[in-house]
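Retry 2 of 3 after timeout on previous attempt. Resubmitting structure tokens to design endpoint.
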């Protein structure tokens, strides 16, 4: 496992300390200047099929690299990479790669899409008995008239235990504002060719039936971390969509901890779950104000709420930039790679059971909680309804995590109906929860009870009507057939 560990760390700013002066590296680095051009068709057919095509120019000449990067048609090829020397920056698309066979005449439409120019400085580092290859990349990505800077560090474990690599990453983070990197240069380049994203929703989780339960948890957790980090990078302008999706990513990660809790017993897992909850709460204060601003019908009050929201966002941004938040994703990543939860004897039976069986059992447990908690939903108090809402969210996220394992035609149909019913329940419980929480949130912001009148007209139904609708949605969900059975 140790030999496969790599870490990418994004610099939050472009200022880079003198690594030699800081005592982190020694000696002169190997310096490599590279210019890479990525190619695709105008409608991005290569990317959709799971291929990438690039030509790299460095001191040794031109190298063309075609690669199966996962998903699409490329996933059927056992060989992941086709590399050859070429004379210049014009792609050679013959039978040495599958690209022309796949595209046919459309291969003639392939053209440059974006280019990446970097200077790489590379050191070999010995840290706490661990040999690490460290590469510092600086440069830019250019796609048409759009440009993005590159400032990132890659760490590759060459010899020793993974713990040493993470220890060195933390030492780097103590002298530079680093965050865990999740995007490749190719992904960033393609991002420049599209309309700027306001937020990133969760992608389907790529689980397969023969995957171990441990590997499934790692895959799910990595997907959540990726979604969070991508939205964190989009939050700089304060957009509410990115804030919301970053918070969704953290809630999904917390749900993953809960779904796999029988596998993850131990102090480290509990501490990390609490830290993820803390960070979600930081963003929650901003999200609460987004909801109030959107529902407020009084212009003067809405302006005051917008000002409070701006203050809350600045405070959240400062927290995200701080050492505790920056270290959290790295801590989770280390625990996923090195944690003892993967080898504990008492969880061996859980780890070795078929993944589909584990998933079905987890979904059954969560459904039972929602079913039991939702009995007499119209007659329970706000706290009990909120508990049902949280359990319904966990069930919704777990269903998304495991959907790929139940992909027969009938199961897919049932999945769609089940999610529709679950979302209907969540929507109705969400309205009830927002209404119940509003007085407390407004009071916390220093507003008196009169402020509530600015929101009363936003609800088209009476309280009794909303409760009845929620109870009806709960009954419909319980009557909906389970897609995993």
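Retry 2 succeeded. Sequence:
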């Amino acid at each position: 496992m140790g030999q496969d560990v790599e870490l990418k760390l994004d610099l939050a700013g472009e200022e880079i300390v003198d690594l030699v002066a800081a005592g982190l590296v020694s000696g002169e680095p190997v310096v490599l200047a590279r210019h890479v051009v990525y190619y695709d068709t105008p409608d991005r057919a290569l990317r959709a099929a799971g291929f990438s095509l690039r030509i790299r120019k460095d001191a040794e000449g031109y190298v063309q690299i075609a690669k199966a990067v996962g998903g699409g048609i490329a996933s059927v090829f056992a060989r992941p990479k086709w590399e050859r020397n070429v004379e210049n920056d014009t792609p050679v698309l013959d039978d040495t790669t599958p690209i022309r066979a796949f595209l046919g005449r459309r291969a003639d439409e392939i053209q440059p899409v974006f280019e990446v120019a970097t200077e790489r400085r590379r050191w070999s580092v010995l840290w706490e008995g661990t040999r690490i290859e460290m590469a510092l990349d600086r440069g830019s990505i250019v796609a048409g008239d759009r440009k993005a800077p590159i400032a990132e560090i890659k760490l590759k474990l060459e010899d020793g235990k993974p713990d040493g690599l993470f220890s060195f990453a933390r030492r780097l983070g103590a002298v530079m504002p680093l965050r865990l990197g999740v995007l490749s240069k190719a992904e960033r380049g393609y991002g420049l060719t599209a309309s700027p994203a306001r937020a990133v929703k969760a992608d389907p989780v790529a689980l397969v039936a023969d995957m171990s339960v441990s590997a499934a948890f790692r895959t799910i957790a990595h997907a959540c971390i990726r979604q969070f980090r991508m939205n964190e990078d989009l939050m700089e302008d304060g957009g509410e969509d990115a804030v919301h999706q970053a918070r969704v990513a953290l809630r999904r990660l917390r749900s993953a901890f809960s779904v796999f809790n029988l596998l993850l017993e131990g102090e480290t897992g509990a501490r990390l779950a609490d830290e993820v909850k803390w960070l979600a709460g930081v963003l929650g204060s901003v999200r609460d104000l987004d909801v109030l601003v959107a529902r407020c019908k009084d212009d003067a009050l809405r302006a005051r709420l917008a000002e409070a929201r701006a203050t809350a966002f600045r405070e959240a941004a400062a927290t995200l930039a701080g050492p505790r938040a920056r270290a959290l994703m790295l801590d989770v990543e280390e625990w996923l790679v090195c944690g003892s939860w993967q080898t504990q004897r008492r969880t061996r039976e859980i780890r070795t059971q078929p993944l589909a069986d584990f998933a079905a059992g987890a979904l059954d447990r969560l459904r039972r909680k929602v079913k039991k908690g939702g009995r007499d939903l119209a007659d329970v108090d706000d706290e009990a309804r909120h508990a049902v809402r949280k359990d319904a969210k966990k069930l919704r996220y777990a269903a998304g995590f495991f959907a790929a394992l139940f992909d027969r035609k009938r199961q897919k149909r049932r999945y769609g109906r089940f999610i529709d019913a679950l979302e209907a329940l969540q929507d109705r419980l969400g309205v009830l929860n927002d209404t119940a929480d509003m007085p407390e949130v407004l009071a916390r912001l220093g507003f008196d009870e009169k402020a509530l009148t600015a929101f009363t007209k936003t609800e088209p139904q009476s309280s009794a009507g909303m409760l009845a609708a929620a109870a009806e949605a709960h009954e419909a969900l319980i009557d909906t057939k389970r897609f995993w059975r």
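Attempt log closed. The two ends are 35 Å apart (CA to CA).
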